[in-house]
Write a structure and sequence with these properties.
Blueprint: H1 4-27, H2 36-40, H3 61-70, H4 72-85, H5 88-97, H6 104-133, H7 137-186, H8 191-201, H9 205-218, H10 223-232, H11 237-252, H12 256-281, H13 283-313
Helix pairs in contact: 3-4, 4-6, 6-7, 7-8, 7-12, 8-9, 9-10, 10-11, 11-12
Length: 314
């Protein structure tokens, strides 16, 4: 036990010294490979419609601050994160599905923060395992790397949980919102005015998306494109079908109130089917309160009067 303390301290100090030396050598110009692509990139045109003299798209402020603080380590860390959890376009779509208005760079920085927290926790566990259990330093390094990887993947998993929760919340709101739209359209309002009224008088994830759709239409986007983008930026599949049905009804002159009522009825039927599927999957869990809480109380209420009669007779 006493001899393992200097070994652990020497291993940690040697690891930190090696990382620092690697970072210092990586900053030397004669040690770095000459990146021809980075020098030619400002003179290339992304598309035919973009001018060569147009200013390039600047990175977000969070990414700039992070890169200034961490240097090339930040660039490499963000590149590793993109390879692990998908590219920028896929992450952008997932952020919109989760209802987050932050940029992809901000989310990458959050992933780096989670990875750093996992790295610190891994170092603590590795030092404890080496000091108390006599684990080899190689196993300690594996624990540290595993902790950093778990931290990064945990942030990506939490984003998936946000998407699922938002989809469930929208599924609960959708039948009521569709009924309100049907009532407004049946009262004589236009579809755009009906969506604007619902967005103004309601609160929740779905009215916010309708408000964004109305804003797109007011900005000059066609109704069909705005409804298609509504279905694309929401995790609810029935909302995409709703947008397609409404756009087709507007183009063909179909009575929109009937279409909206049918959409609301379909949404309620789908929620009932999902509820029945969930109940079928959790049938055993539903028996736990019955067996351990309800049934003992029933037995007590059934036996207690008989015991009371027996005590009185005795």
């Amino acid at each position: 036990m006493t001899g393992s303390g200097p070994l652990v301290a020497g291993t940690v100090l040697g690891l930190l010294f090696g990382i620092g030396l690697f970072l210092i050598l990586g900053q030397l110009s004669w040690m770095r490979a000459r990146d021809l692509g980075a020098r030619v990139d400002p003179y290339l045109r992304r598309s035919r419609s973009m001018s060569l003299f147009a200013s390039p798209r600047s990175a977000s402020r969070v990414r700039v601050v992070f890169e200034n603080l961490m240097g090339p380590v930040a660039v490499r860390a963000l590149g590793v994160l993109e390879r692990l959890t998908g590219g920028a376009e896929q992450l952008e779509r997932r952020l919109r599905l989760a209802g987050r208005r932050s940029s992809t760079d901000s989310f990458r920085v959050e992933q780096v923060a989670f990875g750093a927290a996992g790295l610190v926790l891994g170092i603590v566990l590795a030092v404890a395992a080496i000091a108390l259990r006599g684990t080899s330093p190689l196993a300690g390094l594996l624990i540290v790397g595993f902790g950093a990887l778990i931290g990064v993947l945990l942030r990506d998993y939490l984003l998936g949980v946000e998407i699922k929760r938002r989809a469930a919340r929208m599924a609960r709101e959708f039948p009521t919102i569709a009924d309100l739209l049907a009532l407004a359209v049946a009262a004589g309002e236009s579809p755009i005015a009906a969506m604007e009224r619902v967005a103004r008088s309601s609160s929740g994830a779905l009215p916010d998306e309708f408000a964004a759709t109305v804003a797109d239409i007011r900005a000059g986007t066609s109704v069909s494109q705005a409804l298609a983008s509504l279905g694309a930026r929401t995790p609810l599949a029935s909302l995409g079908r709703f947008g397609e049905g409404v756009s087709v009804a507007i183009e063909r002159g179909t009575p929109l109130a009937d279409v909206l009522r049918a959409q609301a009825q379909d949404a309620r039927e789908e929620s009932k089917r999902e509820l029945m599927e969930t109940a079928g999957q959790r049938e055993i869990l539903m028996l736990v309160p019955v067996v351990f809480f309800v049934l003992p109380l029933v037995i007590v209420f059934a036996i207690f009067p008989g015991l009371a009669v027996l005590e009185i007779s005795l």
